[in-house]
Amino acid sequence: MRKALLLALVLSLNTVVAQKKYPTGLKFDDAAYEKFPLKAVLTKDSYDHLAKRISYEAYVPPVMNQGEGYSTCVGFASTYYLRTMLDNIRKRHASNQAAAFSPSYTYDKIKAPTDLECKEGSRLVDALSSLKTYGAPQYEAFPYPNCGNTTKDLDELASTHKIRDVIRLFGLLAPAAQKTLAIKKALNEGYPVVIGMQTPLSFFATQTVWQPAPGDERMPREGGHALCVIGYDDAQYGGAFRIVNSWGSDWADHGYCWVKYQDLARFTWEAYQAFPDLTVPIAETTVALKGQMELRLREGGQLQAQRSLQKGLVVSNDPRELTLYRTTESHSSGTAFKALVNTSEQAYVYMIGTDTTFRMSQLFPYAPGISSALGPHTTVAYPADHKSITLDDTKGTDYLIVLFSKKPLTFNTILSQLQQGSGNLTDRLQQALQDELIPTAQIKYRTDAVGFEVDPKAVGSVVPLVVAIDHQ
User: What top-level class would CATH report for the domain 30-276?
Assistant: First the structure.
């Protein structure tokens, strides 16, 4: 009798949940996701001081409902929520509908040509690539749903609101702890995160916190739902992420919900971090670029270096000087160390190794498919957090060059130009980077460490941070 009552109760609950099913629209594409640029592996200490809680809820536009029959969650998560919040967070503006960007524009750019009623769904990789390529217009210029209407007349308007870049936070086989840390780190850097998640029936019935039902993990991964992670709190439900949805303010907690860390990791297959375009500074910006490099010896301590100047050797009408750091002592072959590079601001980071032969070696990004884009307060290590490099048997001067840039560089071309150029390192950097190189006079190089900072008004976009190692 008790078993019969329990079965009846389960069937009744399933019926209620089924009646509350909402539209989704995410198309999973594992191959396309794995081809997307991946965030670089960060050092362990990059995660040591994460906040216990973060919330960007004040910067979220008014919760909207994608509507029954519309498979447009990707447009909402990527453009209406993420793109809008990137602007609001950077400008410190509380959100409102007028500041929002159009989910319909993005969906129109990426949908199938035959999808005139917004019913077939789309991929997150396409939506985020569209934001990078086309941008998006304000919501009022192309309000929702606008299915079947053309967006070509809005392309010029949209182009002023492109994102600078986008990366995936982890691979498909990443363990749960790695997924959780990656999302928390992105939020600490100042960015909301868009995720692609499986949403079983239990998710539709969420009130305040999602409680997955037994067996939910075994449901087939035929499609999913795109959502925006806008914060987290270590004290909520043992640790949970705050999610904004596109099912209206009547769903769950006024359109939001909590998802426990372990549950989000179990059901999330895709996660993306987008970067705003910082080439045009806002009034509140005080520093455009700020970086530091530390050469840490395997046996303990550091390779100490002091600031000096190197003048170009090639005669020109525009003589330049390069500030570099020279080690205060000579180091013998076999000396083992690693390079730790930190950026305090959003930047593209590239590391090169060379010597007096000027044969250039790419050190970072350290593998194809790894993004050079790094968020604020981030440290990467070469060759790795737990590995070291050693000085070889070729004596002389070895150089470690780190380029910090406001925008992506054609790295292979720059490597080739540096190697094939003429003169000393100062000359070669000038020849390769030309007007992109911020003049030394506009860079505040530190005297107490290998580092710098740049005022937002500085001309150019690239700062070279160079250490010359005396190798005897």
Answer: alpha beta
Rounded Cα gap, residues 125 and 116, in angstroms: 21
Q: What is the pLDDT of residue 330?
A: 95
Helices 103-110 & 124-133 angle (0-180, nearest 10): 110
Query: Can you tell me whether residue 165 is helix, strand or coil?
Result: strand
Tell me which amino acid residue 313 is: L
pLDDT at 373: 98
Cβ atoms of residues 290 and 454 within 8 Å: yes
Q: Report the distance separating Cα 351 and Cα 22, nearest Å.
A: 48
- Closest C-alpha among 100, 147, 154 to residue 130: 154
Q: 457 or 101: whose pLDDT is higher?
A: 101
Query: Is the model's pLDDT at 305 over the cut of 80?
Result: yes
Nearest to 201 by CA among 432, 10, 462, 50: 10
Q: Which of 46, 43, 72, 76 is CA-nearest to residue 62?
A: 76
Number of H helices, E strands in the chain: 12, 20
User: For residue 142, what are its two tokens?
Assistant: 């192309």
Q: Where in the chain is the domain with CATH 3.90.70.10?
A: 30-276
How far apart CA 77 and CA 72 sit, in angstroms, is 9
> The whole model's pTM is what?
0.93
DSSP letter string over 203-239?
A: HHT-SSB--PPTTGGGS--S-BEEEEEEEEETTSTTS
Using one digit for the tens of pLDDT, what is the confidence trace for 21-32?
A: 899 999 999 999
> How open is the CA angle 178-182-188, to the nearest 5 degrees?
145
> What is the Cα 327 distance to its own chain's centre?
34
pLDDT digits (tens, 9 = 90+) for 379-415: 999 999 999 999 988 899 999 999 999 999 999 999 9
Q: Please give the structure tokens belonging to residue 74.
A: 């990707």
- Dig out the tokens for 27 from the structure: 């198309």
Q: Quickly tell me which residue has 């079947």 as its tokens.
A: 148
Which region holds residue 272: left if phi is over 0, alpha if psi is between -120 and 50, else beta? beta
